[in-house]
Structure formats: structure tokens, C-alpha cells
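Protein record
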Amino acid sequence: MDFFHDFSILSGMKKEERIHLVTPSPEWKDVIMDYKREFLEHEDTIPGAAGLDTADTFEDWYGAMCDNLNEETVRAGLVPASTFLVISHEGRLVGMIDIRHRLSDFLFHFGGHIGYNVRKSERRKGYATEMLALGLMQCKELGIDRVLITCDRENIASMKTILKNGGILENEVPHDGKIIVRYWIDCV
């Protein structure tokens, strides 16, 4: 058996799919920490990774991510969210996506329902567009019919990704010296 076949049986991925969403677990610790190292080496933040870039250890990050899955255990100042690893058909962690189950006032104005990222070595390959499409399917499963997605106006790649997934521009708002672009996508 080849690696893809073994991985696809475990993940439920079909061979024609390039990526698949996987719920983080301790088995992915080394892969996740390698992912974090790549971002830090490039002095890059990791939006849409449930605070991975600021967590001191995997265990701290994983504990917070698990707490933030449910309304009853979500950490102060946050909203319930589901975080997924984006795994390529080769089994490589290419990105992460965070789906917020509801919007706080801050998220409504500046952050949106979905945050996502692609590791630098895997950018410009179309993964962001595909992972956002999968994220929108997760939103629909969560009962979120109208999804707000935002990005910095200077992030042209993210704007294109949102537009390819049906994003409709609502407006642009200033925040911390930047302009945040706000898009809505209907998940029907």
C-alpha cells in the first residue's frame, strides 16, 4: 500500500481531492510545531491558527483550542471556534483554518467567521481557495448560513481567494492603521 492509500483510508479523503480538513490531535504535535517554526523563521504571524504563533507549547495551544470548541468552556474574550489542519493528499500540513461559531462585536467589524493561513512553502498553489471552500462547507454544517470574511486591503491574495469563493464586498473599515475589507458569502 502506498502512503496516500493508507492516509486516505484514515482520513476519508478521495484520491481526486487535493486537500482535506483534519481535527488537530496530539498525534499531529511534531507536524504542527514544524509548521509553526516555518512561520516564525519567516517572521510571519499565523492568522486562523487559534493562537498557535503565541502559544508557548503545543500543549498550551491544544488545551486552549479544545476549550474553545464549546460555549461552556470557551476562554474569556473569545468565541467558540473549530480549528482544522489542512492536509494535502501527500499528508503534508499545508495550512490551517479556524471557524468561529458566532461573531463578537470585534469579529463582526474586523475579524469575521473564518481565519486561514497557508505555509509559505505551499503558497501560490491554489490551496487557500480550496481550503476556504471546505471551510464554508463546515460553516454550513454548523448552521452558519451567511459568513463574514475579512482581510487587510493590502492582502491581494486573500481578497482573490474570498472573491473566488463568492465573496460580496460590503465595505472597508479602518483598524489599527490598516484598512480591513469585509466580504459576505452565503452558504446555501
